[in-house]
Design brief:
Blueprint (H helix, E strand, L loop, with lengths): L32 E5 L4 E5 L4 E2 L4 E5 L4 E2 L4 E3 L6 E9 L1 E3 L7 E8 L2 E9 L10 E9 L4 E9 L3 E4 L7 E9 L1
Antiparallel strand pairs: 1-4, 1-14, 2-13, 3-12, 5-6, 6-12, 7-11, 7-14, 8-13, 9-10, 9-12
Amino acid sequence: MAIDKIQSESINLADNFAFTGTVTGAGESNTPAFSAHRTSQQNLGSAGSINKMIMNVEDYDTDSAYDTSNGRFTVPTGKGGKYHFDIVSNPYEISNNSMTYTRTQIYVNGSNEIFGQINYPSDTGTYHAGVMSIDINLSAGDYVEFYSRIGASGTHYLEGGKVFNRITGHKVVSS
């Protein structure tokens, strides 16, 4: 005898189940998803200025949504929802060891959405990493860009290598 419908009262939801057919409509795929990093130094201009971080190599990009030429993630058609981004930035200046802060900023559709800043006592060295994680509601066609700013008197750079600078993002849930 085939069972057409299972009532929630008739099964123990704490049990383990082995399915032999196909289960559809359960869970999220967490795509689009991407990870990108820098392979070489990027000059970000004079200290105090806000400049876009462009990760020029993709580790993966499930939907071709991150553009390595302009550092922009664009939500594909039909893929709106809540997205999670992790940003590791390690800006530095090489002239005089005078960094007082590092700031990572996230722009959505050209406007500053949020920033995270780490402050340092003056004369603490030339390298300081910033890490930021954020969840953002995005619609199809929205674009996200990542910026860096430091407080120092010299020129500001991003180092190459995924250990120093990388951005990852993925869809968490549909809208």
